[in-house]
Design brief:
The chain is built from 17 helices and no strands. It is globular and about 60 Å long.
């Protein structure tokens, strides 16, 4: 019998039966949040250590930045495989074993003796970490009823946002104190612990599914189109193309340029890597603040205002960070930039999960693929422009692009809302009748 995401069967049935999620489903979402945390730590842990890697291996900053850009490229390309695998073999299962597989790459990174070995180790880590965030989002989309989906996505987003904080902070702090190798040793331990928690929960799901009545299990023989056909259906959709394009730009201007923020503070303000990493970690703390109040902001502002205000906030704060004469204003600017970025990114995630509900795993992983391919381009371009424009101008340019993207996406969201509403027909005129 073909397997079509049976990992989600029990939780999907539970969610359909009741608007209130079961304790087991909430626990699974918590463990998935741990996985998204680990994935984001792996992505951002090298940001603050780039100058140190450049010094230790006697390479340029552009060469050292390959540990970020190669990770992003591999992460993006791997989405093309994880999407259909998750739709067919079960999203939770893939997340579980991909988390455990990340230990191989992080162990090799700990033992790396050259920049080439370290880049290869980062590539291996990315191949595993690529599954965690998008498939976790897709699993939540399958398991949670529509009325609770936005809130649950905000909660899983909290894991990745905290991971951004933890990755940047741990990368700078451990590099300054114990050495950069200890940062990767910490990462190995993190993936091992989270992977074991997921494994135990996946086995619980397997055991619970065995006890389901035969008639309660949906027919798994329904055929799915191949990945290429699914991907073409998604990419050729007018709204899907917009969301994927926005993800590409967001990855380049947001995540890509963000990798240079710690280096900018280190160079322009003379801060240590640990202090610079701690300041940039406030970006993630801003995201955490949004996740706390996100439910209320979604209801108050709606998607259009969220992306417009979020993009503008990132743009203004990037200017402050780029040209402030002292590092103290950079702390508040980084915190607010993270808040604004989370406003924008959470709205993007919500739209990504709804691009193709029938092939949610493929759709969300395509979204992640475009996002992190954009990040890889952003890192390379930003590192190349630093020698020409300087770190301050590169940081400011990334903020400007985010602000413009917010304006454009808000406009597109408004047009889509109007199209979905359709033309409003005038009320039928009623002729008066004489008595």
């Amino acid at each position: 019998m073909a397997r079509t995401g049976l990992d989600e069967t029990l939780t999907a049935l539970t969610a359909a039966a009741s608007a209130s999620l079961s304790a087991a489903t909430r626990r699974s979402i918590l463990f998935l949040s741990f996985a998204t945390f680990a994935s984001m730590v792996a992505q951002r842990i090298c940001d603050a250590m780039l100058p140190e890697l450049s010094r230790v291996f006697a390479v340029s900053l552009v060469q050292a930045a390959q540990v970020v850009s190669v990770f992003a490229v591999a992460y993006g390309v791997a989405q093309l495989f994880y999407g259909p695998l998750g739709d067919r073999l079960g999203k939770f299962r893939i997340v579980t074993f991909a988390t455990l597989g990340c230990c191989v790459g992080t162990t090799l990174a700990t033992l790396a003796t050259s920049i080439d070995v370290l880049v290869f180790a980062r590539l291996l880590t990315a191949l595993g970490a690529a599954a965690l965030i998008p498939l976790a989002m897709a699993w939540v989309g399958d398991a949670v009823p529509p009325e609770e989906l936005q809130e649950m996505l905000t909660r899983t987003g909290l894991g990745s946002t905290l991971g951004m904080v933890g990755g940047q902070l741990a990368g700078g702090l451990l590099t300054d104190t114990l050495g950069w190798r200890w940062a990767f040793a910490f990462l190995t331990l993190l993936f091992a612990v989270v992977g074991l928690l997921l494994l135990m929960d996946w086995r619980r799901q397997q055991a619970a599914r065995v006890n389901l009545p035969a008639m309660a299990v949906p027919n798994a023989q329904a055929t799915r189109p191949g990945f290429v056909r699914q991907a073409l259906l998604i990419i050729t959709g007018p709204w899907s193309r917009v969301v994927l394009l926005m993800a590409l730009v967001e990855g380049a201007a947001g995540f890509g340029v963000l990798a240079m923020w710690a280096s900018h503070l280190h160079r322009s303000q003379g801060l240590s890597l640990s202090v610079a990493g701690a300041i940039v970690a406030l970006f993630g703390m801003g995201g955490v603040l949004y996740m706390v109040v996100g439910r209320h902001m979604i209801r108050r502002f709606g998607q259009q205002k969220l992306v417009l205000l979020g993009g503008a906030l990132v743009g203004v704060c990037a200017l402050v960070l780029a040209y402030a004469p002292h590092w103290l204003p950079a702390m508040l600017a980084t915190l607010l930039a993270g808040f604004g970025f989370a406003m924008f990114h959470n709205t993007m995630q919500a739209n990504a999960t709804q691009m193709a509900p029938g092939a949610r795993g493929t759709a969300v992983t395509l979204f992640a693929s475009f996002l992190f391919l954009g990040q890889s381009v952003g890192v390379v371009v930003a590192a190349s422009l630093i020698g020409w424009l300087g770190t301050g101008a590169v940081v400011a340019l990334g903020g400007l692009v985010m602000a413009l993207e917010g304006v454009f996406f808000a406009w597109v969201l408004g047009r889509r809302a109007a199209q979905l509403a359709g033309p409003v027909e005038p009320p039928e005129r009623v002729e008066p009748h004489g008595d």
